[in-house]
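Service request form, structural biology core

Requester: graduate student, group of Dr. S.
Request type: structure prediction, single chain
Budget code: on file
Notes: please return the result as structure tokens.

Sequence provided:
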Amino acid sequence: QVQLVESGGGLVQAGDSLRLSCAASGRTFSTYTMGWFRQAPGKEREFVATLSWSGGRTYNSYYGDSVKGRFTISRDNAKNTLYLQMNSLKPEDTAVYYCAATPQRIRVLTAVGEYDYWGQGTQVTVSS
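Core staff response, request fulfilled:
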């Protein structure tokens, strides 16, 4: 069982930066594929970024088109924590952001149904 707790959300202005954190429980965090998703009011949950383990100390990242070049996903295995650095924020980035995890390895996983564990979400609001 893996428990995920997000933090770091808030209200910012367009162009600002914000860093989200996701604290994970469990001894096998380092080999789990981790992801960030977001959900705006009235919309489906949307893939943001994923970081998968491909062996040794190698991780592969992949981003949704709407955040590519602005967001960076990273992890600190010693702290069992996943991060999402968000730069150049736009009003359309406003959403509840969720952290997700799955024991699946190596593959790039972008679908909601491919993840087994979810956090409770943290609200990010970007004003214009």
